[in-house]
Amino acid sequence: MGYDIERFVGYVNEGLLCSICRDVLEDPLQAPCEHAFCTACIHGWLVHHSNCPEDRQMIDVSLLRPLYRYMKNDLNRLQLHCKNREYGCEMICSLESIDRHERECEYSQIRCSNAGCTVQIERRNLDGHLAVCEYRSRECPNGCGYTILSAEDTQHNCVAELRTELELLRSEMICRVEEAKHEMESRLDSQRRHMVQKESILQNEIEELKSQMSRMMSDVRSLMAAERQHRQELEQAELEKREL
């Protein structure tokens, strides 16, 4: 939607009006047929149509372009009233700077910043409202450190609040201790399982080494027996040689 034409001072050129909402262009886009539209208006139109609402020529979102520079300059120079005119703001400024003014306008209706308060008030009166707002908060004057709302002043009890705070801290501490305990037990279980697996692997390796050693000893004994047999055969051959 565009800017309400009734807000503007003086004559507004027809070419600066949206072809859909007939208000002054807001965030404008232009079709190849040179008709201009508010971005929100033309996007909404193209959801259900595929042509220009003025001359019915076929258009697509990809064909939309920014407004010509000279038209954009004419648009930005238009003078209009602040949207808070009904609340007393008499500011008239260019369309180019209206958004900046309205963000800071003293007559803007803003919500109270105190949690729980639903009051809408003019920006210029906010400080006065905050000073008396029943939802304003402050620290307990008795030194307990508790933040209280003005509406709770008469019900506030430092001892009760400190006891409640202490119980909350105790509960939180118990929860943290339990969490730490569970985490430690989980880690110990994991390490225990890892050690058992490691022990099993080492035991298997030891058994394999024992088996290898047994085979090696058997091979050594076989070699020693073969060597004795060979030596006896040599001695026998030597005796036979001497006899010959």
Topology, pairings included?
Blueprint: E1 28-30, E2 36-38, H1 39-48, E3 65-66, H2 69-77, E4 79-81, E5 92-94, H3 95-104, E6 109-111, E7 120-122, H4 126-132, E8 137-139, E9 147-149, H5 158-243
Antiparallel strand pairs: 1-2, 1-3, 4-5, 6-7, 8-9
Let me know the CATH homologous superfamily of the domain at 3-102. Answer: Zinc/RING finger domain, C3HC4 (zinc finger)
The coarse overall form would be elongated
Helix content: 40-55%
Briefly note the CATH topology name of the domain at 3-102. Herpes Virus-1
The secondary-structure class comes to: mainly alpha
Number of strands: 9
User: Can you identify the CATH class of the domain at 3-102?
Assistant: Alpha Beta
Total helices: the number is: 5
User: What is the rounded Rg?
Assistant: 46 Å
Q: How would you sum up this structure, described in words?
A:
This protein has 244 residues and is mostly helical. Among the domains are: 3-102, Herpes Virus-1; 107-147, 2-Layer Sandwich (Herpes Virus-1), CATH 3.30.40.10. The protein contains five helices and nine strands. It has helices spanning 39-48, 69-77, 95-104, 126-132, 158-243; strands spanning 28-30, 36-38, 65-66, 79-81, 92-94, 109-111, 120-122, 137-139, 147-149.
